[in-house]
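Section handout 9: paired folding examples.
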Amino acid sequence: MSGNNEEAFHRTGSFRRVLPPGNDTTGISGITVTSANTNNSYINANYIPFFLEYTLMSEFNILSKKLIPGVYVIPADKTPFIWFGVIFPRYGLYKNGVFRFRLLIDSNWPNCDCPKLIFETPLFHPLVNPVTGEMSIQYHFPEWKKGVSRIWHVIDHVSKSFYDIPRTKTPENPEAAELFKTDNEKFIKKCEDCVRQSQVDIYKQPKHSENDDPNYLLFDIYDEEIHGAIRRSWLQQKENNTKTQHLSWVQPGSLEPFSRPNT
């Protein structure tokens, strides 16, 4: 919390947080959170920073439980309105690619338009602007509905766009859209080049103001001396898990629950 209000926060009779007097805009994580949203007039002004952070934390909690395959996402440490992520396509034209992105959430959250998703790794795709890296997802979310539209919907849609490439009349990358429609061989070649380049670019640190955030995702080239022990421990744990014999609810020929075969 901000230093000027340290004495205003205290515990009185319980462990509930007591809000300070005045318009403090410091959120629960110590981050200054402001919103241009004027539609929350029913909320005490002191609660707005807490409300914004709690709703975004809730969104991230929902996303975490969805376990979208091949996707890793983490909110920025310095602001709740930027999330960092990486997509590892597991099959299809972009298989073995590593595509880093940023999710930008409007400060008017939750009364705002659809969040923007910008790829930092160059991606040859009909929906991705080749200059800015922004993926066009507004067509899929023409209206962002408070309490209905979720951030995990955006991440899930973007992930699926790697496997089921949509056809659109207004592509962000006209070249990719045209090749996808008329010359499948050249389109596949472009995608393969894109995947190979992503495996090189992932070790580079893009130059933008957010890349000094403690939660920004960085990658190192594999070093046996540094990473070998951890890798072996993970593989050993996986092997041990596969050897674990799970109990059946009822073993065939037995009335005993959670029974195991006689060996």
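Moving on to protein 2 of 2.
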Amino acid sequence: MSPVKGLCMEMCPKEEIMMRKSKRLVHQLECNPHKMVKCFSRSAAGNSLSKPHILRPPPVLRDTISYLLNEVLTITNVPFNIVYDFIDDRLNSVRQDATIQAVSNQDWMAILAPIIRFHAFAAYKCYEYDVNTFDPFLNMKHFHESIFKIIKILLEDSDESTDELCSEMVSLLIVTNLGDYNVLQQALPFISKNTLIKMAVLLSLNIMNGNFEQLFKTYDAFPAIHQCVISVQLPMLRKIILKSMCMGFNCKNNYFPISILSKILLHNTPRETIKECKNYCLTVVDDKVELSKSSFNNEVDELHLKKEIKFKVNISTMVLNT
């Protein structure tokens, strides 16, 4: 039995537009009635999701993604968590339509790549949000679902035309899961592909082995979208680095310059480094910190200081890779 083909040429089926208008379910980001976007919905009794007239074909799905990430993502007069929730729901609907229609590998690659970048950026953008405002675990669940699918496709159907995408996606998966042996195993078939994948593998292996020098040496060499997912792991890594330095440099009255430590921990300013050290009960004197194994408090929570990223292009350009 061949998969159903979508016939809806709009971002939202007419019957859904009518239903949501009648029930006052139009989202605040859908003020323009001509730019409503199909919601994600679960299958229920008497509610088939595979009717051709409510399914959008791949070109419409790509246009929908472009609209969401070009026009909605850049809205600034609405809190970003509301923008995120709206885009996340609509992108889930895009993936759902694509799954029902069993779209081609080429279509899947065009659909999934910007979705993956969106979730990577959101992880960084919403990092300091309260968990009741933004769910980082659900965001990364959607990220991993999409990136594992695209990597599976790249394993089955890759050629020279997909080399750049392959390099980006495989390296992005690796740096999202630094020090994860299982992820490194999945990346093995791609290691010889190019420099970016090799750099990501080397960084992950070094972190796995407790060598953190590679982190501050190579961080700036990674693309901005990779820095987004590395930055959300920094609080955990900083704690491990500080603890290992206290073990290695442990000596009474052994003071380490804050200026150098700030670079090692990838802080934005030395003031953040001082705050980090004090969080773990280390003694700071002027512009130096005493690295003491006995003073380091391993029981306190990580300090969530976000590394600022200087984006060279606007966010829409980055996630759509245009």
